[in-house]
Amino acid sequence: MTKSVDLNADMGESFGPWNMGDDSALLDIVSSANVACGFHAGDPDVMAATMTRAMECNVGIGSHPGFADLQGFGRRKMQLSKDNLKNTVRYQLGASRGMAAALGGQVRHLKLHGALANMSSVDADMARACYEAALEVDPDIIIMVLAATEMEKVVRELGCNWAGEIFADRAYNDDATLVDRSKPGAVIHDPAVAGPRILQMVQEGAIITESGKRIATNIDTICLHGDTPTAVALAGAVRNSLTEGGIEIAQFSGRRG
Amino acid sequence: MTKSVDLNADMGESFGPWNMGDDSALLDIVSSANVACGFHAGDPDVMAATMTRAMECNVGIGSHPGFADLQGFGRRKMQLSKDNLKNTVRYQLGASRGMAAALGGQVRHLKLHGALANMSSVDADMARACYEAALEVDPDIIIMVLAATEMEKVVRELGCNWAGEIFADRAYNDDATLVDRSKPGAVIHDPAVAGPRILQMVQEGAIITESGKRIATNIDTICLHGDTPTAVALAGAVRNSLTEGGIEIAQFSGRRG
Amino acid sequence: MTKSVDLNADMGESFGPWNMGDDSALLDIVSSANVACGFHAGDPDVMAATMTRAMECNVGIGSHPGFADLQGFGRRKMQLSKDNLKNTVRYQLGASRGMAAALGGQVRHLKLHGALANMSSVDADMARACYEAALEVDPDIIIMVLAATEMEKVVRELGCNWAGEIFADRAYNDDATLVDRSKPGAVIHDPAVAGPRILQMVQEGAIITESGKRIATNIDTICLHGDTPTAVALAGAVRNSLTEGGIEIAQFSGRRG
Amino acid sequence: MTKSVDLNADMGESFGPWNMGDDSALLDIVSSANVACGFHAGDPDVMAATMTRAMECNVGIGSHPGFADLQGFGRRKMQLSKDNLKNTVRYQLGASRGMAAALGGQVRHLKLHGALANMSSVDADMARACYEAALEVDPDIIIMVLAATEMEKVVRELGCNWAGEIFADRAYNDDATLVDRSKPGAVIHDPAVAGPRILQMVQEGAIITESGKRIATNIDTICLHGDTPTAVALAGAVRNSLTEGGIEIAQFSGRRG
After folding, report:
1. What domains can you pick out in chain C, each with its CATH number?
2. Within 10 A of C231 (CB to CB), how many other CB atoms are there?
3. ipTM attached to this prediction
4. B222 contacts B168 by C-beta, under 8 angstroms
5. Residue D122 pLDDT
6. More confident residue, A54 or B182
């Protein structure tokens, strides 16, 4: 049986007159698109255009909710009550689903954005609030989690559909957290390094940390970026390494438990 | 067969720390609630609270989209492209549906708000764009229209589910438009006048204009307000007049054609 | 020489269609108004109306900047970079000054709002960033600080004009911090208690804590609230106690060092 | 005496994570910068960075207020009351002045943006409301108007400081209005055409229309764009043509009457 993996990227993060990222280039590379829902980026027109293009490219559509903070692009930590968190996710996922339905499509998965994701990856209560809210809207939605974090613990507890994600361009510590961006080597810019590295992780079914340690985990999808020409080149290199290594690129179907 | 009519009111128009209207009082009077969707009023927490209370009171939930204009409360005219209009409605209806689903409820109808409604009542293309967008999200949704306006023509052409609405507290011209607010008698403040007047309209199945002319139309629902103590009193008086006149208060089921 | 003290209240915290507080009632009681600047509350129309009324009542105008968070009313903690903080304060103070100048008035003081104030009262770096930003816009502005907190240390270091503030309706711990709202007695609701208590503090020139300890400090102004009928009654009682006790109510003139 | 003219461009129209235009390139070309004020673009951080760079380049700073419509970039028509218009301008100009003062700079001029400008160029009442508001904040500010429009009539009536502006890249009708964008030749893209054409207009002190008609007017400043590489090239070409033609590039000093 051929091994397969999904490739995902954040998309639809333009807003009004402002463009962000090279969504067109990424749509030729990825199999799943995390589409912003208007709170940190992505107005309704951008959402519609992004989902339409994703459908044309047979790329799976995901809802990508974030904090209501356009200026900070959802990257600034905010302290919300549990109820507010839940309502924020319900609203954004609902908006994504409404837009997708109107276009004849479907929201397959949900991935948290920015500070909402970062905080949830180390705060199980926060992750649980967000994921419960999403499952209340759609019990079958596939929750995309950062592999081997609190997020993963929560989806296992919830017994819902989920997919585990690793980053194509980030180095890992031995506890599966990301190496701090301020440290040398934290971000991988060289496509020639990133491609084989990710292929190896997928083949071994493990995160390979900076020290060489293996953390066995479910690598269902790999996060790529498109905000710079280099990022797109790296994304393409990762895809090529995987396909040349015999790994099929295909949308995750979600796992339970 | 007992005649029945629906009573509706705009609700959930608080935002963040700011309260608007007396939703609790209205929920004892109306059978349908038009719940704001966050663009002109109604943040996700307000939406959740409003829908929860509506469900507890067996009041039907509607989506009440408006222009993205908090400061102007969606009452200022904006010129949007047709695509932008459609995406604006898709997004807000989707958000309403996501929230309702998460709470175990359902969005039964859609009613446009403020300037979006006023402009659409005299601009068939605009009404059509909004209604098509809503029907793309949910083909079964009941579109609430101002009776005998361009809105009604559009829903008849679309062949969708709809319900015709008149105002409890506004005088009508002979062409079924509302008497301009600046004119004396345009707004009816006296509960003792409003109640019998609406009962008569419902019994006759016609708008009764200022001049006494009858405009036969489908009166499926009557719009009430709750933004002042007087408004709530008038709303209650209209309900009493109707029930004492043998008219049952019940959610509309929608009509086609 | 007659002792005098200023009375201040947050005002102009309505937004668009939504009203907050009873500014008219407060304007008869206070001598200084902290006028919201549009980020947490107070759109330009509200600012103009509030400043106009303050001027008519000979009430001093202050700029009351907060986090850009309408839904959260500026009460949710946000993590901003130092530069972002500074620019946020410069912008809001500038807007206040522009509005006041257009109306023939003047912004005399600045008081931070909500979470921005709470965080700054325990974080000298944050307070310094905000106050430096304000002084860069207007070197003569009077900075209103929570007496005996990090804020006060910072204004003393900066050598700027400042005024020390205590709360009329909050109990104090022995370290001059406020008793947590969740504890009994933390908030004083009884006008008959609040009035004499504040008079005593002003006469002694000291915060009197729950345990009876005296913390000598500069009480230049007393913060009142107007968001409930009770709050307005308490505000009036505090004013009466002070005037009957021989304390003149007058705008602070600012102190240095 | 050497003839001189000012070159201006809209700047600081980035927002949060989103970039717009090539401000750095333009700052080497223009003598005046119209800096967005946060309503249609330009958050406080962007304003600070843009003003700082403008000052380093000895480029005059202007306030560039627009409608509160980020998604529409201030290009969608909005119907505001006269008071709301005035307060909107007062607020934004105040914010600009606060920011400039904090950075050791000064706001020299005001130019309306987008739909606010387009509407005001044909609606004297609207222009008057905006300009009166600006002059109430700063009686000495130089108002930049579209030459030979209602805007110019208004500033002449007001007797304020003003500067007349023409577009480097737009064709003119015989009544001094711009040729509609939908018509061929309406927008001039060829630097080799734009440069000599503008030089000729400045030398003749007249708008030269498509038909060759001369409309004598005060050409104090020429509007350039930087949103595309072509736009920057055209801007540079206009500057070169002018300087090679013996016209000095210098900030306008404003004219009265």
Report:
1. 4-256 (3.20.20.370)
2. 21
3. 0.95
4. yes
5. 95
6. A54
